[in-house]
Amino acid sequence: MRERFTQEFNQLLINSIFINKNQAKSMKKFLTMLFFVIIATLSSYAQLSESFDGTFPPSGWTISSSSSLAWSGVTAGTYPTCTPHSGAGMAKCNSFSVSSGTAQLITPSINFTAAPIHTVSFWMYRDAGYSTSADKVDVSINTTASPIGATLLGTINRAKNLAPVVAVAGWYQYTFTAPGSFTGAANYVFFAGTSTYGNNMYIDDVVVAPLLAPGVAGIGTPASGATGILPTATLNWTAPATGGAPSGYKLYFGTNNPPTNVVNGTNVGNVLTYDPTPDMVFNTTYYWKVVPTNAAGDATGAPVWSFTTMAGFGDLKGFVLNCYGVPVQGATVAAVGPATYTTASALDGSYQFLAIPASTYTVGAQKLGYNTVTVPGVVVTASGTTNQNITLTQPGMTVLPNPNNVTVSPNEFFNGAFAVTNAGCGQLTWTASIGSWSSANHTWFSMPTLTGNVAASSNGSVPAYFNASGLAVGTALSAVVTFTSNPDVGTIAVPVNMVVAGSALVPVTNLAGTLTDQFTGAVTLNWTCAPGAGFLYYTVKRNGTQIAIVPSATTYNDVLPTYGSYTYEVAAWYTDGQTAPASVVVEWPNPTMTWTPAALAATVWSTRSKIVPLTVGNTGQGTLAFEFPDYTDNAGHSPLAYCTAGSTTNDEFISRVQFGTINNASASYPAGGYTNFTAVSTDLEMNVPY
Question: Per DSSP, which regions of 195-312 are E strands?
Fold first, then answer.
């Protein structure tokens, strides 16, 4: 049997990079320092973070109670049923089992000297059970580990219908800000669970961290640089996506820049909108800035935005007429600009919009049976009147023949058509549907196009195919084609009837197409047909276009114009008509193989493996087929091309391996036989040849 090394050892020889002991120590020291830097960075932000996933109470935490009410750590909740907000655990207060009392869950001492203001946030599960039971968690803070004299930060009730009210049961995050007087090195946060014999209470993910000043707010409306703004508009913005949560917003607003002469830094509260009072002045540019703020300070870098109010109000009037100048009553008229205004045309076709903002509008009108018409760029001036008439066009629709009756021979394929005529003055869009079939056979009639447009005072031809393939003499089939119109000027139902009579036409069968020359694109078509009386010729189509008439032969040679996939159709023609064509697809492929990455490479440690993805693509024409043979390494060897080995033979073997401190030898069977050397190892130094 052949002796072989594992793939991991081959990778070690080719790809691995070893680090000696001194280098390893240096790396360990570097990683340790990096770890401390990361911990220090995190610690500078979060003074305490606890998710209750381990031992309870967590290290440094304490619990106390004057009754059997108590805090404990659990991995799943009952009464109500819930799971931890994150991780594997959460803190539980057993208020479902104890009718009264208070239990304290107390944090370790927290140092607040790093920042002037700190926040306490946590998640609490709110549920709908025992909705009148005011089980609650009071959050307080003190400079000692005793709740006596502690400052209450806030209260959260368990029942979702009690303050703060929430719509559905689930986890909710609550954040309280510690008073600015808590700036010392020793501070304790208390979670006091009080039971009134409702459901259990659960909290998770407690974080005590410095309060950061908010980031900048985002602009809402009006957009900066906007014009034509109504004097009654409100200012709207979005909450900052970075920094601490704002407790309010300072607004600067005016006609000067920086803005101060209307509102100068007033805190408008924790809101996202402001309604200027009194209303703004026409034709005036305003500037505004919003600065989020909280106890930690104001946002920095807030931009100044601007907009210009509209010039004033004006009137827009006109008439809605048809193509012949006749007034159209009841049309819906709209003017779309800074706002949208709508009205209906009167008996005389008139419409009017009085006292609308001076601006540029798109004016349009529509009515059932008419084409919708829009007129862009209509300017309404301040204190002026703009007149704009609107002409509504109207199409008509007729369809011929009606009914559409044909008589065909057995196996005949008849190319029929409908003529759709529009005698009106507007564009017609028609849609056809086929129904009311007389039998389950729906292949005898088809329409390749089921919708289209016909311009005013013109007509269009709509193909309709009748196929009698395989039908016997005397077969009579019917259906109904329904034409609808847009705009709606009526619906037309056209009966379609096909009767099969006369002598059968022999169709083309067994059509085959072969690409005979990959370099030139030569194609040979062959088919079978024993034509009967009245035969004329064969037609050959490529991708729907006729390319040849073949008098009698049942073969045809073609040359494709370029690479790609082509559909050939061959039909037999008789004095009574043509047969349904036979079809075949011929592909002239020109695939182009791509692969990413261009070369497979990886650095792999001993006893490890690594998968390197390879993406194969085809940017050419046609189908690409590929396979991976045994690979060859950069020395020209084929590591996977092993010879056949038996249980008592190893005609190929590695006689000796010397590498570093490794020195192993083996011999051919029976003197030596197979020996497993995959577990051996040696130390190597970088930049030293072996």
Answer: 201-210, 218-219, 226-229, 235-238, 248-254, 263-267, 273-274, 285-294, 297-298, 305-309
Cβ neighbours of residue 659 under 8 Å, at least 6 residues apart? 13, 682, 690
Nearest residue to 9 via CA among 670, 660, 686: 660
CA 56 to chain centre: 43
Pairing label, strands 385-387, 313-322: parallel
Phi–psi pair at 26, nearest 5 degrees: -65, -40
- Report the distance separating Cα 89 and Cα 83, nearest Å: 8
Distance CA 136, CA 196 (A): 9
- CA 626 to each of CA 592, 617, 618, 630, 638: distance values in angstroms, whole numbers, following the listed order: 11, 11, 11, 13, 20
pLDDT tens digits for 212-221? Answer: 999 999 999 9
CB burial of residue 93 (10 Å; 0-12, 13-18, 19+): buried
Tell me the helix, strand and coil percentages in the chain, rounded to 5: 5, 45, 50
> Edge-to-edge, what's the strand order for the sheet holding 151-157?
62-65, 102-106, 188-194, 136-142, 151-157
Q: What is the tens place of the pLDDT at every residue in 268-293?
A: 999 999 999 999 999 999 999 999 99
Q: Tokens standing for 680?
A: 């051996």
Gap between the Cα atoms of 11 and 659, Å rounded: 14
Structure tokens at 605: 């440690």
**Identity of the residue numbered 200:** N
Q: Tokens 């602009």 correspond to what residue?
A: 219
Q: What are phi and psi of 80, to 5 degrees?
A: -90, 165
Measured CA to CA, the distance from residue 269 to residue 290 in angstroms comes to: 11
Give the C-alpha separation, 500 to 467, whole Å.
Answer: 10
pLDDT tens per residue, range 27-46:
333 333 333 333 333 333 46
pLDDT in tens, 339-396: 899 999 999 999 999 999 898 999 999 999 999 999 999 999 999 999 999 999 999 9
Phi, psi of 32 (to 5 degrees): -65, -45
Tell me the one-letter amino acid at 523.
V
